[in-house]
Amino acid sequence: MAKIIDGKALAKKTNDDTKQMVNELHSLGIKPCLAVILVGDDQASARYVRNKHKKAEQLGIESIVNHLPKETTQAELLKVVNEYNDDDAINGILVQSPLPKHIDEQLITRTIKPEKDVDGFHPVNVGNLFLNEPKNYPVACTPKGVMAMFAEYNIDLTGKKAVVIGRSSIVGRPMAALLINANATVTVLNHYSQDAKSYIKEADVVVAATGKLHMVSGADLKVGATVIDVGQNLNEAGKLVGDVDYESAEKVAGYITPVPGGVGPMTIAILMRQTVELASWSAKND
Amino acid sequence: MAKIIDGKALAKKTNDDTKQMVNELHSLGIKPCLAVILVGDDQASARYVRNKHKKAEQLGIESIVNHLPKETTQAELLKVVNEYNDDDAINGILVQSPLPKHIDEQLITRTIKPEKDVDGFHPVNVGNLFLNEPKNYPVACTPKGVMAMFAEYNIDLTGKKAVVIGRSSIVGRPMAALLINANATVTVLNHYSQDAKSYIKEADVVVAATGKLHMVSGADLKVGATVIDVGQNLNEAGKLVGDVDYESAEKVAGYITPVPGGVGPMTIAILMRQTVELASWSAKND
């Protein structure tokens, strides 16, 4: 039976640390502040934004939520982003995805100042990550949270075989970069991959990020592998499940993240932490 | 016996195309211009710069070579880079590596305007590449040249197993990104990798970029594999050789690049092509 990587517990620990960092910054007169922009009436997006706002308040992070109507034009949204870019009181800017179709999401991502890019999606930050630059920059929160899990559970990566299933901009690619930087041997699988299962079978670490149910089952895994499930899918019964067939996988894996209670809680904890890091880095550069 | 990927012939073909592109741009009143900055007296660097200058002139590309003394300060070099950034007549800026130790090379790389970054080394361009952005941006010339080889020889990459040996910023990492974007299954090996040989043995495409002699020999390869040798080493006899033991590898590989006459000539051809592309993209954005 695999050891469970408890994302909820690690998120709590991370949040406790973050709260302490916030207190220390407050004592220096620095008030970390996150601005979240929500455009339109998507229910799931509204819920995510509420959760972020609540969590920020719990941790003592100033939180601005700007809820704009779905008719907001691209020019209007750019104007808000640029105001926040210029506002020294704001350390992190997040524009909740997805945006209405009439707005170019990539343009918005690129307009956020790299040093306020709390999501780590700006190309210059992605470039820094992929080049393993030895400086401070934000990194996509989900894969950064996965790295925190490896650290917490002392999971060694150097020289180890890691397989990333999926190559999205927000999970697969930055995850691969982080693992390369951590000296793992990294293979990135995509839906064209031949012999995908043979890579998974040999892997010491499997990160599943495809958004497809039951992509990986216990029979696919090497005994003792670390299995990180980034998937968030609803199964036939309407229950939240990952990309991994947990029941069979936990019998073979050495470590495994559950869904829910694994990667999910860590993503928001890292978002909060990164807001505070941005505030701290910005203060150092003043 | 492997089919030889003739880098010299493809470089010639590429240069012929480039020359035609230059003529077309000239007829529109656009004169592509490359500015190369050389600091100090490194003999090899001076030779590279001379070769670039000569090639640019052959192709009708305006070429500025600014040879600065080795005592040049970082501030003085930054000033020159910024002058070139602001000079609309200059399309590509290249600062020859290595720089004297008192100059922060990464700072210089970041100071070059991304749209004049003919080497493709600026983090924002690397980020664009790693995110597979559907827009025009420069890419590191050596891996871009390798992709041109795959295209020329109709080497299919989709779903294929590609192994990149080495993870440097200028070859291994951008090569991996290009292969991921081309739908290959990409594994990046480093010197910590366990079972490195088992990955190489399974690979349809092997790109060796480690700077170590005889890293890969014929016995390591899958029959019919495509072998790209980015290495440029001097062997015991002082002869230029790659990272691959060519004699044994060509008996097993399906395609192979020789050293010299493989990747090397393509790198400079792509540098020239990219200068012209930058001029063309910049004209479109005016």
TrEMBL record, chains A, B:
GO biological process, one term: tetrahydrofolate interconversion
Similarity comment: family membership: Belongs to the tetrahydrofolate dehydrogenase/cyclohydrolase family.
UniProt KW keywords: Amino-acid biosynthesis, Histidine biosynthesis, Hydrolase, Methionine biosynthesis, Multifunctional enzyme, NADP, One-carbon metabolism, Oxidoreductase, Purine biosynthesis
Record carries keyword NADP: yes
Species lineage: Bacteria, Bacillati, Bacillota, Bacilli, Lactobacillales
Keyword Oxidoreductase: yes
UniProt superkingdom: Bacteria
Catalysed reactions, as listed in the record: (6R)-5,10-methylene-5,6,7,8-tetrahydrofolate + NADP(+) = (6R)-5,10-methenyltetrahydrofolate + NADPH; (6R)-5,10-methenyltetrahydrofolate + H2O = (6R)-10-formyltetrahydrofolate + H(+)
InterPro entries per UniProt: Aminoacid_DH-like_N_sf, NAD(P)-bd_dom_sf, THF_DH/CycHdrlase, THF_DH/CycHdrlase_cat_dom, THF_DH/CycHdrlase_CS, THF_DH/CycHdrlase_NAD-bd_dom
Function per UniProt: Catalyzes the oxidation of 5,10-methylenetetrahydrofolate to 5,10-methenyltetrahydrofolate and then the hydrolysis of 5,10-methenyltetrahydrofolate to 10-formyltetrahydrofolate.
Enzyme Commission code(s) on record: 1.5.1.5, 3.5.4.9
Stretches assigned to the Tetrahydrofolate dehydrogenase/cyclohydrolase NAD(P)-binding domain: 140-280
Protein name from the UniProt record: Bifunctional protein FolD
Pfam families per UniProt: THF_DHG_CYH, THF_DHG_CYH_C
Binding residues for NADP(+): G166, R167, S168
GO molecular function terms listed in the Swiss-Prot or TrEMBL record: methenyltetrahydrofolate cyclohydrolase activity; methylenetetrahydrofolate dehydrogenase (NADP+) activity
Record text on subunit structure and interactions: Homodimer.
GO cellular component: cytosol
Domain annotation Tetrahydrofolate dehydrogenase/cyclohydrolase catalytic: ranges: 5-119
Organism listed in the record: Nicoliella spurrieriana
Name of the coding gene: folD
Pathway linked to the protein: One-carbon metabolism; tetrahydrofolate interconversion
